[in-house]
Design brief:
Shape: elongated
Largest sheet: 5 strands, parallel
Order of helices and strands: EEHEHEHEHEHEEEEEHHHEE
Strand order of the largest sheet: 3-2-4-5-6
């Protein structure tokens, strides 16, 4: 029987081999918690601060590789915080969070030295993807060889190229289908509830119903499992899991 393996993203690593460090600066606790969870899931080390003063204090102690900075902290202007962070850590990567209609804030932040900007509301997946790109380009972290590949049985997903194959056959997925499959493959043989899937795959402010998960699971099954040993399974009343096809009858 073919040996099957599944691997979480090996992750970007600091040049000293340690985990990437990210500081989240936002006074909205629910947003901070959401981002921190997504970042830790990447294998990164995370700290948070609720205002500008706390951000500078944490940056001094934590020495982060990247900072996610709300453009409007409660105690001082976001650009002022950026300037103080740069004085502490000249090469730190800074990703701004700005209101969708605050065009001037976004432009000012980028002109002042911010590396990128994401508008609210946002998907945590988008923030993580943007941050990964910024950190790679900054040269403060190195990618492990083939770290973008997730492999489970004969199913392979490349998180960088977004290519998916099963048994050597290419499978085309929509963006949402890809994110759903990626979440399943990062948690092989683990039952994931509809609520967990909604929180992870869809935006945190998604207002739809849990049946959207059932719909997208059915889409995935048609593409991943059609004519093959099934990999995606339902646990009634609990959720969904993925496992290698040859385990289907165990």
């Amino acid at each position: 029987m073919t040996t099957t393996t599944a691997r979480h993203r090996a992750d970007l690593r600091r040049t000293d081999g340690g985990p990437v460090r990210v500081l989240v600066v936002d006074d909205e606790s629910s947003r901070t918690a959401l981002l921190s969870t997504a970042l830790r899931y990447e294998g990164w080390e995370v700290r948070s601060a609720g205002d500008g003063v706390g951000a500078v204090r944490e940056a001094r102690a934590f020495r982060p590789d990247a900072v996610i900075l709300d453009a409007m902290p409660p105690d001082m202007d976001g650009l002022t915080v950026l300037g103080r962070l740069r004085r502490e850590l000249p090469d730190v990567t800074v990703l701004f969070l700005a209101a969708r209609d605050a065009v001037e804030d976004r432009i000012a932040g980028l002109r002042a030295g911010g590396d990128d900007c994401v508008t609210k509301p946002f998907s945590p997946e988008e923030v993580v993807a943007r941050l990964r790109g910024l950190i790679r380009r900054s040269g403060t972290a190195a990618a492990a060889r083939d770290e973008s590949l997730l492999v489970l049985g004969d199913l392979t997903l490349d998180e960088d190229s977004h290519e998916v194959t099963r048994g050597g056959t290419s499978i085309h997925l929509t963006a949402t289908e890809f994110e759903l499959l990626r979440y399943l493959m990062r948690n092989p043989r683990r039952v994931l509830s509809k609520a967990q899937i909604l929180d992870r795959v869809w935006s945190y402010d998604f207002g739809g119903q849990a049946n959207v998960v059932e719909l997208y699971i059915s889409y995935l099954r048609r593409k991943i499992d059609a004519g093959r040993s099934p990999m995606i399974h339902t646990r009634r009343g609990a959720g969904y899991l993925i496992r290698p096809g040859e385990e289907a009858n165990r």
